[in-house]
UniProtKB/TrEMBL annotation:
UniProt-listed SUPFAM superfamilies: DNase I-like
Cofactor: Mg(2+)
Catalysed reaction, written as an equation: Exonucleolytic cleavage of poly(A) to 5'-AMP
Biased composition (Low complexity): 204-218
Region (Disordered): 90-111, 204-227
Protein name: 2',5'-phosphodiesterase 12
Entry GO MF terms: metal ion binding; poly(A)-specific ribonuclease activity
Alphabetical GO biological process terms: mRNA processing; nuclear-transcribed mRNA catabolic process, deadenylation-dependent decay
Keywords: Exonuclease, Hydrolase, Magnesium, Metal-binding, Mitochondrion, mRNA processing, Nuclease, Phosphoprotein, Transit peptide
Subcellular localization(s) per the UniProt record: Mitochondrion matrix
InterPro entries per UniProt: CCR4/nocturin_mRNA_transcr, Endo/exonu/phosph_ase_sf, Endo/exonuclease/phosphatase, PDE12-like_N
EC numbers on record: 3.1.13.4
Cellular component terms (Gene Ontology): mitochondrial matrix
Length: 608
């Protein structure tokens, strides 16, 4: 399968890597090198298996065969392909010999004998040195370690070796910012895979990778030099600016390695923006916390679906350079910021689905975190947790509108709301959602925690809507943390679109709100809905009440919170927010040095 240009160099590289792991594996790999390789992919959920190998003429074959087909039919098809390949090779050889020679004379007629008619080669499959019968089904015949013989050539069968099903490099790469390849593996895992990074050799540099300098015109193919980085993530330096990157990776699963792949960046490394608003904050978060602490982050990322509108460019963020609103640029900053916090829990709002799958998952997975996503309409919520500290036990996400209308938990609240038809209509039009994940400590199974994440309705006059959404959220969280589980602590993160002076915040931290609070008429008397609300939690804003967590040209205020259950958790440390000078260096947010119009909240929490 891997007899492509440079394939043997790749194989030698894999062998060197294997030697670094265990001598026994290296010996096995070297022994296997005496035989060609054929890769079989066979999974129970699919009706066909695939078989890939290279014929002696250099052609590469990819065959799809029914798993329930008798082996004899598959072997017959292989023999036919081999015969065709032999005929093509013979024809090509004859054509070369019939070309005019270097002095311009033609070949003499009849000087090249016609090739004898090719015979169909013998094709057999052996397992443990015994021929496999033709009536054995493909699913049973093509076993790992079997040997396929085509004429004089033998192939070792590798059934379901580790393989990359997806491999991509970012479209925009900046010096000083981590490059996190997006990858998906089958029959393998990233931790057992091998990575090696290269960069383009600068003009005039000696040709690397075993080549020799050219004394004539430059080669149309780029030459590469090793960076010395053999990790999944590579952070380019200023010396890499203007150069492209190449990643050589070999999938593994702890027992063996699969076919290597190489990937070159489509762009060169660009210069970074210099100092970013989060650089100083990273000085407080250089290491992952110990098991007694939970470093928690809440951050509204500013969805690309909102940042890329003409209204955003001309009205909301006219002070921001247009390129700094591009998603590829902002994702470099977001990845560096989030990975630099070394967090155990990250709750994100305004997350585009493509940003989650193509950017956040590859970056945060490379740094030990796993995530779940809940879509709203055009964007959604994401919660990530550190895999060495937590496992995901269950998810209990809801849509506020659907829960309010159908869940008996909210029967009384709905009965009160229907008394105010105008308000009811507005509330039920909202698409806001709540993401709830129950996590269990990997070190102490008795420690479980309910992590909630939300983004409440945004409109400045929607105070009463946010009150009702918060009531639904807290009732649902109580059901999960107290009814479904035996009183587990709660961390409730989000963009609540409410300053500390609002009814929503008062309700959250005090446990109740009266029916005469002014926010029940936040959108005028026509939509007034008076009701009293209570909840059972003793909540506190872990990061206090900062002057602002959202800073744009026309507004700044504290809208984001990490609410914690004071009965079970306490605050160990709050990571300082950027200084006002840092925030306003480019007038407001977002900017070339800050990827969102919000500021991340970061704190270390401690179990009581």
């Amino acid at each position: 399968m891997w007899r492509l240009p440079g394939s043997r160099a790749v194989l030698r590289g894999v062998r060197r890597a294997v030697e670094r792991h265990t001598r026994a594996e290296a010996a096995t790999e070297t022994a296997a090198g005496a035989m060609e390789r054929a890769v079989v992919r066979c999974v129970p959920s699919e009706p066909k298996l695939s078989l890939s190998f290279a014929l002696a003429d250099g052609s590469h074959k990819n065959m799809q065969r029914d798993q329930s087909e008798p082996l004899g039919r598959a072997l017959s098809r292989i023999a036919t392909n081999a015969l065709k390949g032999h005929a093509k090779a013979a024809a090509a050889k004859k054509s070369r010999k019939n070309r005019p020679n270097a002095s311009g004379g033609g070949a003499c007629a009849g000087s090249v004998p016609e090739p004898a008619a090719a015979c169909e080669p013998v094709v057999k499959l052996y397992y443990r040195e015994e021929a496999v019968a033709d009536d054995v089904l493909n699913v049973d015949a093509w076993q790992d370690g079997a040997v396929l013989q085509i004429g004089d050539v033998k192939y070792k069968i590798e059934r379901n070796p580790p393989a990359f099903t997806e491999l991509q490099l970012p479209r925009y790469i900046m010096a000083g910012f981590p490059v996190c390849p997006k990858l998906s593996l089958e029959f393998g895992d990233p931790a057992s895979s091998l990575f090696r990074w290269y960069k383009e050799a600068k003009p005039g540099a000696a040709e690397p990778e075993g080549g020799s300098p050219s004394s004539s015109s430059p080669s149309p193919f780029p030459s590469w030099t090793e960076t010395g980085v053999n990790e999944r993530v590579y952070t380019p330096s200023n010396a890499d600016i203007g150069l492209r990157l190449k990643l050589h990776c070999t999938p593994g699963n702890g027992q063996r390695f699969g076919p290597s792949r190489e990937l070159e960046s489509v762009c060169t490394v660009e210069a970074g923006p210099g100092t970013c608003t989060f650089d100083h904050r990273h000085l407080y978060t250089k290491k992952v916390t110990d098991d007694s602490l939970i470093r928690t982050v809440s951050y509204n990322l500013l969805a690309d679906t909102y940042a890329q509108t003409e209204f955003s460019r001309s009205v909301l963020y006219p002070y921001c350079a247009p390129y700094a609103l591009e998603v590829d640029y902002r994702q470099n900053l977001i990845q560096k910021e989030l990975t630099g916090y070394n967090a155990d829990l990250i709750c994100l709002q305004e997350v585009d689905r493509s940003v989650f799958t193509d950017s956040l998952v590859p970056a945060l997975e490379a740094f030990g975190l796993e995530g779940v996503f809940r879509i709203k309409q055009h964007e959604g919520l994401a919660t990530f947790y550190r895999k060495t500290k937590f496992t995901l036990l269950s998810q209990h996400d809801i849509s506020f509108q659907e829960a309010l209308e159908s869940d008996l938990l909210h029967k009384e609240l709905l009965e009160n709301l229907v008394k105010y038809p105008s308000a009811q209509e507005r509330v039920l039009q909202r698409s806001s959602v709540l993401q709830v994940s129950v996590l269990q400590s990997t070190k102490d199974s008795s420690k479980r925690i309910c992590v909630a994440n939300t983004h409440l309705y945004w409109h400045p006059k929607g105070g009463y809507i946010r009150l009702i959404q918060m009531a639904v959220a807290l009732a649902h969280i109580r059901h999960v943390s107290c009814d479904l589980y035996a009183g587990i602590p709660v961390i409730f993160c989000g963009d609540f679109n409410s300053t500390p002076s609002t009814g929503m915040y008062h309700f959250a931290v005090s446990g109740s709100i009266s029916e005469d609070h002014e926010d029940w008429a936040s959108n005028g008397e026509e939509e007034r809905c008076n009701m009293s609300l209570t909840h059972v939690f003793k909540l506190k804003s872990a990061c206090g009440e900062p002057a602002y967590t959202n800073y744009v040209g026309g507004f700044h205020g504290c809208l984001d919170y990490i609410f914690i259950d004071l009965n079970a958790l306490e605050v160990e440390q709050v990571i300082p927010l950027p200084s006002h000078e840092e925030v306003t260096t480019h007038q407001a947010l977002p900017s070339v040095s800050h990827p969102s119009d919000h500021i991340a909240l970061v704190c270390d929490l401690k179990w009581k």
